[in-house]
Amino acid sequence: MGAGHGHQLHYHGHSPLHRAAAHHKILALLGFVLVVVATPKDWFAAYGVYLLVLLGVIAVSTVPPTYILRRMVVEVPFVLFAVLMPFIATGPRVEVLGLSVSEAGLLAGWALLAKGTLGVLASLTLAATTEPHALVVGLERLRLPQQLVQIMGFMVRYLEVVTDEMRRMRIARDSRGFNARNPAHWPVLARSAGALFIRSYERGERVHLAMVSRGYTGRMPDTRAPSRPARGHHHP
Amino acid sequence: MSTPTRAQDAAGAPPAGVLDVRGLAYAYPDGHQALYGVDLQVARGERVALLGPNGAGKTTLVLHLNGILDPGAGSVAVSGLPVTKEHLPEVRRRVGIVFQDPDDQLFMPTVRDDVAFGPANAGLRGAELEARVLRALEQVGMAQFADRPPHHLSFGQRRRVAVATVLAMEPEILVLDEPSSNLDPASRRELAEILTGLDVTVLMVTHDLPYAFELCPRSVVLSDGVIVADGPTYDVLTDDALMAAHRLELPFGFDPRSVPRP
């Protein structure tokens, strides 16, 4: 049960970037992304500058580049779409490497790729240098509505519990000869997903019950100490 | 806390009742009747085990103690305060329930926040809250884990923190649902040591009969929604006819007659 500790995205470290306040980092990310998105598509040099700034930040963070690179696979669907754009867009066409492609599509594809990559890279850097629960505290400081903060807090808290439950269900399934590659077995996957949903729903009810038993009335109380030190913690 | 000790109770005036359940009956909305007139009194400082087979109504009874469920008939009072809607906040402060799965109970980002949740709901803030949290964590030997996220702890540690979340509310009665379930023997013993060291009234729901024998001088057996036995744990566990009639069985090799009385 204790397996799978550690967060998928967070890279433990003590760099200045790790120590920076979460709400500052969130604001910096937001500002950066807004600037990138607002930059005209053909200011190619500007994108180069953005990338250099970002690479500098990653170097300061001491997070290994391969760590971030591996997690960039989430971008793949967007890359595919960006690559398709020059071929499916209309308008004047140009020759690139012997292929006739749409000029507007080429530019749009480039912009999608550049902006997307910069955004993903910056977000991964934030995630790698900030504990999930510190992120939630940061968003709270930025006055995100309480309900959203609570929902995110619960998500962070129970993500591992549910992942672990999913893992145990998979092991139990596989132990009884389930084969994910056999299409005849696929309905089982749907049923597993349904079972997981119901279990999570029931857990939600039990958590609520435990909260109500400790006097919860719908508002999260202020549990902060008067002069609590920074909310960092040490990994086991 | 300055509750009178058990010795005083035995020697002097009739002990003050912490828990007073009278004629409690309850049927679930689907018509299933779970409790048929339960009477149960628990005195201050007592440690009582609530035993019974699966489906006997133990959890249903527990959920009445802090007003999660409303009685169909009968009444529940905690230290003289009837469990009714207008008293719910105070009742929930007085009755601390530790649920079976610590993952259900521990939902805050850090152990400290989780232990602070109950007293903060009761209105405590700042230094007073912090002191309360640290004391509760010290009572279960988890003070050095205050800043950890709960899911980084072992199961036994999480169970202890779950106890602390309730102790922080300074309850008059601690209700534990299967406290020894899923614990390894060392964690089970550590929890027993913590529980016997606490100066608080305990009602413990359990299938772990040796644990009940070790920790609780008195046992109550609930079966099919009624209390069928109430007496010293030794007498209950050695009443073979009673045990067999209510699907209670001692684990292999355990005989209360051969164990020194705790």
Question: Can you offer a commentary on this structure?
Answer:
The complex is a heterodimer of chains A (236) and B (262). Helix content of chain A is 65%, strand content 3%. Chain A is mostly helical and 236 residues long. The longest helix of chain A is centred in the last third of the chain and has 30 residues, at 146-175. The longest helix of chain B is centred in the middle third of the chain and has 14 residues, at 126-139. With 262 residues, chain B is α/β, with parallel strands linked by helices. Chain B has helices at 6-11, 58-65, 88-94, 102-105, 111-121, 126-139, 155-167, 185-197, 209-215, 233-237, 240-245; strands at 17-27, 33-43, 47-51, 73-78, 81-82, 95-98, 173-177, 201-205, 218-223, 226-232. The radius of gyration of chain B is 18 Å and the shape is globular. The two termini of chain B are 25 Å apart. In chain B, the strands form 2 sheets. Chain B has a 6-stranded mixed sheet with strand order 6-7-8-3-9-10, with helices on both faces. A 4-stranded antiparallel sheet of chain B has the order 2-1-4-5, with helices on one face. Chain B is built from 11 helices and 10 strands.
